[in-house]
Amino acid sequence: MPSPPHPDTALAADLLAHWVALLERVRRPGSPPPAPFGDELLRRWSEPQRRYHTLSHLAAVLAEVDRLADQADHPDAVRLAAWFHDAVYAPDRSENEERSARLAERVLPEAGVPAAVVAETARLVRLTTAHEPADGDRNGAVLSDADLAVLGGPEPAYAAYAAAVREEYAFVPDPDFRAGRAEILRQLLAQPRLYRTPAARAAYADRARENLTTELARLTADDGAAQSDTTVSDTTDGGPAA
Prior knowledge:
The chain has 242 residues and is mainly alpha-helical. It has helices at 9-26, 35-45, 55-68, 75-84, 96-110, 115-127, 138-148, 155-168, 174-190, 198-228.
């Protein structure tokens, strides 16, 4: 059965061309054509539950990886990891990164990608769970910085990102969402170095901390207002992802 059309066919076409060129560089000669594998990934990235983790996010991360490519030891492994890092995404589940890494470990060998590149790709996908690459992990630094670049965007872009994340977690009641999201923001703000590459730090670090601090203040104010309107609170874990 053919895949349904992608919501943004122009962007999907551009991304598919990127995927084919990437696979042509890394796969073994005589491997299966790369386009069907890319089309399946695009189908995953176009699933209806997504509001932020969409084709646009994938394209933005890939563009940032390209911008930071000279900081990586294996830029194409980082690009593959960008393709897979949110390929499995269900907002109501907590193991999306692990499931995405396992998808890479299953799909990439079928596509003819050498085992060492597959292993590095999967390692990088798993790293996006916490975005804390070790010192000297140049590939991890580039992927983490590319994924978190949105935090350092202009205020309107950050507001759109935060709103899209809330839409993905529409099933979570407001008090639970505010608590879970605030905890993630505090964790990000507590990191001594939110960005690991010099280029990303220069471009995004100051603006990211302003954006995170502003959103945290708003969430805290909203939570205080909500508590003043009710005497009963029944909260559960809510874990909106960055």
